[in-house]
Amino acid sequence: MTRKDAKRSALVLFSGGQDSATCVAWALDRYETVETLGFDYGQRHRVELECRGSFRSAIAGAFPEWAARLGEDHLIDLSVLGSISDTAMTREIEIETAASGLPNTFVPGRNLMFMTIAAAIAYRRGLQVLVGGMCETDFSGYPDCRDDTLKALQVALNLGMDSRFVVETPLMWLDKADTWRLAHQLGGDALVDLVRVETHTCYVGERAELHDWGYGCGECPACRLRKRGYEAYLTGEQVSEPV
């Protein structure tokens, strides 16, 4: 792939969850080539990683025009992040608010590391657009999900790699109901159902029962937000207040 082609290609941070799956569809609707990137960092809900392959296969089967654009998948071992993180995302501890005021699901440096590694892979493969599902509307206060953080990171990556990467965050100003609506705009009921069934968001990794809004325990913050967003999507309401 030449640098001329790079502006028409993207690398999507794809965890296997609702937001990043929607971003995969968003990128497939816009770019000629879309590759995906996931990270195994010792997350408590690593079942999401098992959803990545099934979602990629399902979206390729349901949308042949996108199948031709779906490129390689990359899975990176980032266990060092889990080994230095004492959080409810990487430890079997109760989810609560930490002394800092942030939820103890916050993994310091996670998105910074993710995007930096994504840029390194994109540089090697000639991809220019980096797509992430970070969101400042339903972001639980995570500082590495803020728009300012991602804009600053884009500048740093371009300076450090002498490149012209574009960091796209299509969900930045959407709430969960809007994210469901975006999936519907991109692929109708078929895509909404793929996101509902083939992705995973539950923090505790529960995947035994399929609810109307998808799999999950139904009690953790991620499940409550996903459920409320889905219900608001069906009724046409908004969901912007924190869980």
UniProtKB/TrEMBL annotation:
The keyword Metal-binding applies. The gene is queC. This is 7-cyano-7-deazaguanine synthase. ATP binds at F14, S15, G16, G17, Q18, D19, S20, A21, T22, C23, V24. Pfam families: QueC. PANTHER family: 7-CYANO-7-DEAZAGUANINE SYNTHASE. It catalyses: 7-carboxy-7-carbaguanine + NH4(+) + 2 ATP = 7-cyano-7-carbaguanine + 2 AMP + 2 diphosphate + 2 H(+). It comes from the Bacteria. One of its GO terms (molecular function) is ligase activity, forming carbon-nitrogen bonds. Catalyzes the ATP-dependent conversion of 7-carboxy-7-deazaguanine (CDG) to 7-cyano-7-deazaguanine (preQ(0)). It comes from Paraburkholderia rhizosphaerae.
